[in-house]
Design goal:
Helix content is 51%, strand content 23%. The protein is α+β, with helices and mostly antiparallel strands.
């Protein structure tokens, strides 16, 4: 996993489990863990993750906006998928090493009724369709994740 993905994952964890109210406090938490980040990079990370500032009974707090972060994470997922293949009953997604479980989790969170479930290994996701007739739609869904990202690279 790249340093950026590790940093993004750690930011998500910190925002979920700590009451972070300022960029400075998050920079300090990350620094305590040996992750050096500038305010500018943190601002870009917030935009990429869909982080928003909200007000709670304890005061302001940064949180992940599920709707926005889902769109941003989908872009990262496309980087991690290498290929998609299928037979008459199963779909196999090849990924970068160490990323299959994250992609399987992302696909599961789509709550698509055409998907029975996923199994994520190290670099392979087994996508189980709820019916064999759903395979073409699901293959197109995965390929769309891959190609939308390619369009964003240009």
């Amino acid at each position: 996993m790249s340093a950026k993905l590790k940093r993004l994952n750690r930011i998500k964890e910190l925002l979920n489990f700590k009451n972070i109210s300022s960029h400075e406090s998050l920079v300090n938490f990350l620094a305590d863990e040996g992750i050096q980040v500038t305010q500018a990079t943190l601002s870009r990370d917030f935009a990429e993750l869909g982080v928003i500032r909200t007000f709670t009974e304890r005061g302001p707090r940064y949180i992940l906006d599920a709707h926005e972060s889902g769109k941003q994470i989908a872009k990262l997922i496309g980087f991690e998928i290498l290929s998609v293949e299928h037979n008459e009953s199963l779909i196999v997604i090849r990924t970068l090493a160490g990323r299959a479980q994250g992609i399987a989790h992302f696909i599961d969170r789509l709550n698509n009724p055409e998907i029975l479930g996923t199994v994520g290994g190290d670099d392979t996701v087994l996508l189980l369709p709820s019916s064999e007739k759903n395979i073409p739609n699901l293959v197109m869904l995965v390929k769309k994740m891959m190609t939308e990202l390619v369009g964003d690279k240009n």
